[in-house]
Amino acid sequence: MSFGYSRRRGGGRLLLRYVLASAVTVIFLFPVYWLFMISFKTADEIYHVPPVWYPSQLQLGSYLVLFRDGDVLAILNSFIVAGVSSLLAMIFGTFCAYSLARFRTGGEHLAMWIISQRMIPPIAIVFPIFLIYVHFGWVDTYFGLILLYTAFNLPYVIWMMRGYIADIPLELEESALVDGCTRWQTLWKVVFPMARSGLMATAVFTFVFAWNDFIFALILTRTEVITFPVQLTHYFGGQSNFWSKIAAMSVLGTLPIFVAVTIMQRYLVRGISLGAVKG
Amino acid sequence: MADVRIAGLQKYYGAVHALKGIDLHVGEGEFAIFVGPSGCGKSTLLRTIAGLEQLDGGTIAIGGQIVNDMRPRDRNIAMVFQNYALYPYLTVYDNVAFGLRARKVVEPEIKRRVDEAAAMLGIGPLLQRYPRQLSGGQRQRVAIGRAIVRQAQLFLFDEPLSNLDAKLRDEMRGEIKRLHREIATTMIYVTHDQVEAMTLADKIVLLRDGRIEQLGAPLDLFERPATGFVAGFLGSPSINLIPARLVARGNGAAIALATGETLALPPGRTEALAGKAERQVILGIRPQHISRAIGGKMPSGVARVSAKADLIQPTGTRTFVTSHVGGVAVTVELGAHDVGAQGSAVDYAVDLNRSILIDPETDKVL
Ligand SMILES: Nc1ncnc2c1ncn2[C@@H]1O[C@H](COP(=O)(O)OP(=O)(O)OP(=O)(O)O)[C@@H](O)[C@H]1O
Ligand SMILES: [Mg+2]
Questions:
Q1: Share above pLDDT 90 across residues of chain B, in percent, rounded to a whole number
Q2: Which residues lie at CB < 5 A from ion ligand 2?
Q3: I want to staple B152 with a disulfide (CB 3.0 to 4.6 A). Which of A142, B78, B102, B163 is the partner?
Q4: Taking the domains of chain A in order of start, what are their residue ranges?
């Protein structure tokens, strides 16, 4: 509504809009820019006063060090743990959500109970989980982290997908059933295509959650499956901080999310706004 | 092609008793219409036949085979839904082909059938479009196309035209009738539009509150309704229902209106009503069976009633006039130029040969 209004007002307002939008973009993107720049700077440039706005040349030294010392394995670990756990959470969660939405499994309250699980602060349960994991020997294993992230993401997936599935007109599925599909086939041929944006958006969020998690990874890993956020903390020393490593590692850790969000942007916007309408 | 036989069908939704013992036979190739007011159970009955709802008692047989526990996909039926149920992510072609692919029909055969159906429905040029690029009427055609290609033994329609505007609805109604003639499959069609019911049906099944109120050919129901409810449901404008008293008059019987007039019943009717004199009745008379009285002497069974034209609604071909007769508003259908100004006096000829008398307690037609 307000867009149509301003369009009619023409030039002046539009210009103001662009100026404001550009200013906001610069403010928000500056830290990201700074991060990238530090990762390419030499030690002198990092500490130089007044600050060096852009490095004289792109030093790849910081990255080489990360690769040479095997620090980048932390990124690989994050990938495996976040990827597998998101996949599992999406598969199980979507089926649960379908059951809740279409067969009213557990009535109105089960869904609420499930999402309430997500509201527990991680720090409140991380120590009991740690003790359990020690008992079973799951500490510092892929299995342990994947299990944990899957469990932690499940309520979110179920809740979100339940909403998206409930929004699909029942007639579409019934029509498919009459036309000759089994329940499973209607899932593949109707529900998933209809909920595609929702599936993508939810998958991105579960992945980002597992990718960004720090507290569980900090306490449940030692040396074998250290993830990227935990690895990053190793560069904050008592005497000095390894700014070049911090920056380079942060860039490497940001890129996958950046790429994922860029690719999925179309679905993300639609998926999120779908959820918004549903309320 | 198959017939449908339903016996003692019961359906509950939790505490709601939606179908209370339905017995029904729809013959092979017949066009049956379920009609009735909102919430009477039309959709429930149709969906139970489709297998989309579980039944709680009785049996449904399609083509002689009991299908109570059969999945929808195994019943070999095709269904057209109220909101078309087209898949927005598939082209028209793929939408129409959907059911055939689900049944693993080979592609050349799919193409042949889709093209044939498209030609029949005039949607050939639309096959590569997506549903959102179609008008309501076009979507409806696609939805029907989806059903046709299946070559199912039974077609089910749930209010397929209710989302279309009046003009398109008339057009599609004609098409569906033509379609039934061409493919001659058994069809069951739900509507709450009595015009659709009258024009399309071989057999009308009038439902009320989970029961069949009456069933039969359209004109049977129209001319010989079993209850006041049926009489009131069919016909447009609705039948006039005038509370009155049945009285003896000479060796015959007459209707005494609340406002004092008495209308002599024709001799044929008196015998049927013998022994029922002096009781409350409701006189049912259709707007088409009241005309302007011309001349002094009325034919047998036709009574003269004087009234005032309170409200005049010309439609071009016919004019609907509302007057007060026997204390209630009565609608009369007259010729376009049969009536003068609003408020003027009119003499009506009420054709009691065509009237019905209803017992106010049981709603049964006497
Ligand atoms: N899923 C359901 N859960 C509970 N009650 C239902 C359900 N579906 C229908 N009913 C009830 O069953 C009765 C019959 O409903 P049905 O949908 O068959 O009516 P209808 O004749 O198709 O009405 P309409 O003309 O409005 O479509 C109604 O009282 C309705 O409230
Ligand atoms: Mg209905």
A1: 62
A2: B 43
A3: B78
A4: 2-63, 69-273
Helices A122-136 and A142-166, axial angle in degrees (round to 10): 130
Neighbour count for residue B54 (Cβ, 10 Å): 10
> Which residues have CB under 8 Å from B58's CB, separation 6+?
B6, B7, B8, B9, B10, B21, B22
Q: pLDDT tens digit string along B272-293? A: 566 666 788 899 999 999 998 8
Per-residue pLDDT of A183-233, as tens digits, reads 999 999 999 999 998 999 999 999 999 999 999 999 999 888 899 999 998
Phi/psi at A115 (5° precision): -70, -30
Could you tell me if the CB of B39 is within 6 A of ligand 1?
yes
Q: Which sign, positive or negative, has the C-alpha torsion A140, A143, A145, A151?
A: negative
CB A56 within 8 A of CB A45: yes
pLDDT digits (tens, 9 = 90+) for A85-112: 999 999 999 999 999 999 888 877 888 8
Mind listing the pLDDT tens digit for each residue in B62-79?
999 999 999 999 999 999
Q: Is the CB of B40 under 6 A from ligand 1?
A: yes
Sequence-distant (6+) residues with CB within 8 A of A211 are A78, A82, A228, A253, A256, A257
A67 token code pair: 């690769």
Distance in Å, CA B35 to ligand 2 centroid: 10
Nearest to A177 among B72, B82, B146 (CB): B72
CA separation, residue A104 to residues A166, B54, B147, B239 (Å) = 11, 16, 30, 45
Region A69-273: CATH code? 1.10.3720.10
- ipTM of the assembly? 0.85
CB B298 within 8 A of CB B349: yes
Distance between CA atoms of residues B57 and B59, nearest Å: 7
Query: Encoding tokens for residue B148?
Result: 């046709």
Return the residue of B nearest to A193 by Cα: B89
Cis peptide before B125 (omega within 30 of 0): no
Secondary-structure breakdown of chain B: helix, strand, coil percentages, each rounded to the nearest 5: 30, 35, 35
Token pair in block for residue B249: 């008059």
Query: What domains lie within chain B, and their CATH numbers?
Result: 4-233 (3.40.50.300), 240-293+300-358 (2.40.50.140)
Question: With a CB-CB cutoff of 8 Å, which residues 82-111 of chain B face chain A?
Answer: 82-83, 85, 87-89, 98-99, 102-103
Residue B227 has what DSSP assignment? Answer: B
Q: Which of A98-112, A265-279, B20-34, B314-328 has the lowest mean pLDDT?
A: A265-279
> For residue A108, which amino acid is it?
E
Residue B254 banded pLDDT, cuts 50, 70, 90: confident
